[in-house]
Amino acid sequence: MESSIVHAAQLLRRSRETVALTGAGISTESGIPDFRSPGGVWDRYDPQDFVFPHFMKTEESRKKYWRMSREFYQGMSIARPNAAHLALAELEKRGRLSGIITQNVDGLHHRAGNSLTNIIELHGTVFSVSCLSCGKTLRSQRN
Ligand SMILES: [Zn+2]
């Protein structure tokens, strides 16, 4: 274990441009279960119900989507960044990290202190919604 940490530190030191790619695993210690793990979101919802644009077609599927989204928001709005999020924020402050690409929608990289422009949220965030008709975006005060 120690040798892999030393090796990672050497790679970081030598790197001219470092970007972190994160997924659900980084946020489980913050109390956000991996979607696929037991107790995760896909235990309670069928992912096939949320394939775009299928989920927009019926009122029932839209209600299901918003029920799931509300559940996400409630859990994620109280979550705190953990040591891994804070370590990435520290690497950025020290000039060792150029950006973060994340699959997560929890906003914890922002909360940890990483700069807003260096975070690419592949699946968006639960802290904003955009109207598909007019494009207007509303953001929560949380992030
Ligand atoms: Zn609109």
Mean pLDDT: 89
User: Helix fraction?
Assistant: 25-40%
Largest sheet: 3 strands, parallel
* Helix count from the secondary structure assignment: 5
As a whole number of angstroms, the C-alpha radius of gyration is 17 Å
Order of helices and strands: HEHHHEHEEE
Q: Given the C-alpha coordinates, what overall shape results?
A: elongated
How are the strands of the biggest sheet laid out side by side? 1-2-3
Distance between the termini: 35 Å
Secondary structure topology:
Layout: H1 2-14, E1 19-22, H2 41-44, H3 59-77, H4 83-93, E2 99-102, H5 108-112, E3 119-121, E4 128-130, E5 137-139
Parallel strand pairs: 1-2, 2-3
Antiparallel strand pairs: 4-5
Residues 131, 133-134, 136 line the site of zinc ion.
Descriptive overview:
The chain has helices at about 1-15, 40-45, 60-75, 85-95, 110; strands at about 20, 100, 120, 130, 135-140. The protein is of the alpha/beta class and about 140 residues long. The strands form two sheets. It has a three-stranded parallel sheet, with no helix packed on it. A two-stranded antiparallel ribbon has the order 4-5. The mean pLDDT is about 90. The protein binds zinc ion. Zinc ion binds next to loops.
Please outline what is shown here.
This protein is an alpha/beta fold and 143 residues long.
List key phrases describing it.
143 residues, alpha/beta, three-stranded parallel β-sheet, two-stranded antiparallel ribbon, 5 helices, 12% strand, binds zinc ion
